[in-house]
Amino acid sequence: MASVYSLNVSAIIALAFALCLQGAFGSHIACENLNKDSCSYAVSSTGKRCVLEKHVRRSGEQAYTCGTSDIEADKLKDWIETDQCIEACGLDRHALGISSDSLLESRFTQKLCSPPCYCNCPNIVDLYFNLAAGEGVYLPKLCESQGANARREMAEIKSSGFVAPGPESGGVKPVSLSTAPAPSPF
């Protein structure tokens, strides 16, 4: 128990120190100014997440650019994720986009839920917490059920027809999944 407490205290101190250093140097991150090696998992000075995009030129050459997504980070601004967090969480900085499918992979979930990632990389945990919530999954519960049960739990939650409660919600509410037949093309 003491080691978890010390990890949490260390994470808070590291985050505060990083924020102070960034503030002291007056950094203002614009996603469009970031290169391929620092774009993914970065947060702009406006709080928007950065996204790595691939473009194919007429010559067939591939070019990578960094753009600003519409997704906001929770309480983070001016943040470029460290290589230590990328490695600890089992991520690839050069991957294009993220998917909730990665939460079904036990190796990825184990790395994401490991203390080096979960306790020290708040930006990544926030991103995957929100991604999991969008799929009706509560990340801390998924981390508790690591291993063989994690895949089953994710599959059960995804197929249950229920959505995760919001922060002010009184509980889980069923989703109506009624469909209408497609109109005839004639």
Automatic annotation (TrEMBL):
<feature type="compositionally biased region" description="Polar residues">
    <location>
        <begin position="176"/>
        <end position="186"/>
    </location>
</feature>
<protein>
    <recommendedName>
        <fullName>PAR1 protein</fullName>
    </recommendedName>
</protein>
<dbReference type="InterPro" id="IPR009489">
    <property type="entry name" value="PAR1"/>
</dbReference>
<feature type="signal peptide">
    <location>
        <begin position="1"/>
        <end position="26"/>
    </location>
</feature>
<keyword id="KW-0732">Signal</keyword>
<feature type="region of interest" description="Disordered">
    <location>
        <begin position="161"/>
        <end position="186"/>
    </location>
</feature>
<dbReference type="Pfam" id="PF06521">
    <property type="entry name" value="PAR1"/>
</dbReference>
